[in-house]
Amino acid sequence: MIIPADDKSHIPYPAVLQVPGTSKVPGTYHLVIIPTLSGLARAFSVLNGQCTMIFIARGIIWYGLYLFLVILPLATAIISDPTRVDPSFVTAIGIGAGFIGFSLMSLEFALISRIEAAAEPFGEDSLQLFHNLMGVIALGFVLAHPIFLILSGYPASCWLNPFSSCANIATITAFLSIFILLVLIASSIWRKQLRLRYEVWYVLHGLFALFVIFAALVHIFRIGRYTTTPIMKAVWLLYAVLVLGLIVWYKIWTPLRNWNKRWEVVENRVERGDSRTLVVKPVGHKGFTFSPGQFAWIKTGKTPFGVGQHPISISSNSEEPPDGQVAFTIKNLGDWSGEEIPAIEPGDTVWLDGPHGVFSMDRQQGMGYVLIGGGIGITPLYSMCQTMIERGDVRPVYLFYGGQDWESLTFREELDELSGKMNLQVIYVLSDPPEGWEGETGYINEDILTRYLPKQAKRFIFLICGPPPLMDAMEEALPDLGVPREKVLSERFDMV
Amino acid sequence: MHHVIVRVFAIGLALLLIVAILIFAFTVAA
User: Fold this and answer.
1) Which end of chain B is more exposed for a tag (fewer CB within 10 A), N or C?
2) pLDDT tens, residue by residue, A320-344
3) How far apart are CA A494 and CA A496, in angstroms?
4) Which residue of B4, B10, B29 is in closest CB contact with A130?
5) Phi, then psi, of A69 in degrees rounded to 5
């Protein structure tokens, strides 16, 4: 379309038109519109503002629903007043703490059930962190339940000793529920110190959690004080249905959906940094489309059912890959990644559940990008760079890549090659540099960022993926650099 | 999402729930 030079009504921001001197096809010219920086910033700010508001609104709705379900037993108990007993104040605190502990424990299942609509506003790694934190907080409320009841005069010997003569089903289920909950939380916090294999822990974690919920329900119904009215019975049954429903959803329904969506391994190649890249292609289906930065749960083995799913970032470009191929780069961290992944051969089957995650350059648009990666956290960032080339995206990208030593930097050569094809500057930061190294040393910090980033970088989108120390350092450094919080997207890759 | 915000959400919720328990106790206690 030809627009008069003085007519800017068709362009929502100030722009200039430029015909490049060279073209790919002789005799054909590409007409390129290059918007001015301030114009781009205004346009992106409107777009990002609308997206952010939608996500905030959805986040508030989900958080409100969560809060409603947490306090539902308490509120119902007050409204329906089923006790007719009038407990003492201390007893009532104990009862209330028990209710809250129970509902928090039940909702732990919802936080990790991979319901995409719920995960989208927060990010799955944030939901995982929230699950971890609320598990510990739930334990606090659950422990407060017997403490306050014993303080108010309940016989400790009956409740704390399941073998005592006054013990019954109500006391034994209460004791077992709390005891197993303690084991569950301790084994989650100290899994690595206890040298528990991830797969073993995963199975135990699920079984223990189920046991805790159903032992607690038996306890509530055996006590019977808060199950006398139909509305209270309905509340407890709602939680039982919720927990069972969520388990059926992600343990049976999701694998069942993937049953006829087999993926075949095309290549299993060794990468720098004790890593491997699995290239897989869909068999008998179209595969999936994804945004650069997303991840999928990978399961090896004959069926998509069972334990052993691992969240792995996609490391290939997202723009129409040949045969729907997708690549995952996996670092050797022991058991599964160190034993099973190297043994996978071309032709083997893997099962994917994905794509998942909100860590993507497509979620926020900016004038440019600052990618900050540490260790194997480089994989989603590498996917973003490849995708930008495929899209012909000429926006500037600054990639800060932290690693231990020069030899172990995964995709080092590939990134250097990409920097010749796109507007990419890679800054390597080594904590253990080789002799004669003239680049940056130590860890990525505010000083290093300031040295390389242009002034307008505050308007860029920052995408960070790496180990917790890097994430924590960046979450502190970026506000100091004047980067608005909404322009920072991050993902912790050690979420399970 | 910023992980500091997640921690603030979790701690804020815990405090809110303590208040809810106190309201419950005041309401149902003799």
Assistant:
1) C
2) 777 889 999 999 987 788 888 999 9
3) 6
4) B10
5) -70, -30
B21, A488: Cβ pair inside 8 Å? no
Assigned token pair, A376? 């194997």
Q: Which residues of A touch B17 (CB under 8 A)?
A: 70-71, 100, 104, 141
> What is the three-class DSSP state of A282?
strand
Q: Mark out chain A residues that contact chain B at CB-CB < 8 A.
A: 63, 67, 70-71, 74, 77-78, 81, 83, 86-89, 91-93, 95-97, 99-100, 104, 122-123, 126, 129-130, 133-134, 137, 140-141, 471-472, 475, 485, 488, 490, 492
The answer to whether the CB atoms of B3 and A129 lie below 8 A apart is yes
> Is residue A54 over pLDDT 80?
no
- pLDDT digits over A446-460, tens only? 999 999 999 888 889
How far, in Å, CA of A465 to CA of A324, rounded?
Answer: 25
Tell me if the bond preceding A355 is cis, omega within 30° of 0: yes
Rounded to whole angstroms, the Cα distance separating A293 from A464 reads 10
CB contacts of B8 in chain A (<8 Å) are none
Q: Which alpha helices (DSSP H) does A25-123 contain, by range?
A: 37-80, 89-111, 116-119
Nearest to A352 by CA among A391, A401, A301: A301
Distance from CA of A76 to the nearest CA of B (A): 10
Q: What does DSSP say about strands A326-331 and A424-430: parallel, antiparallel, or unpaired?
A: unpaired
Q: Report the residue of A130, A360, A472, A492 to disrupt the B interface, i.e. the one with the largest count of B CBs within 10 Å.
A: A130
CB–CB contact A96 B21 (8 Å)? yes
Assess whether pLDDT exceeds 80 at residue A82: no
B30 touches chain A (CB under 8 A): yes
d(CA A361, CA A166) in angstroms, rounded, equals 62
Mutual orientation of helices A124-151 and A169-189 as an angle, nearest 10°?
Answer: 140
pLDDT in tens, A350-404: 999 888 888 888 887 888 999 999 989 999 999 999 999 999 999 999 999 999 9
**Pairing relation of β-strands A440-441 and A424-430?**
parallel
Name the residue among B2, B9, B17 with its Cβ closest to that of A100: B17
Q: How far is CA A45 from the centre of its chain?
A: 25
3-state DSSP helix/strand/coil % of chain A, to nearest 5: 50, 15, 35
For B1-30, the pLDDT digits (tens) are 567 788 898 999 999 999 999 999 988 886
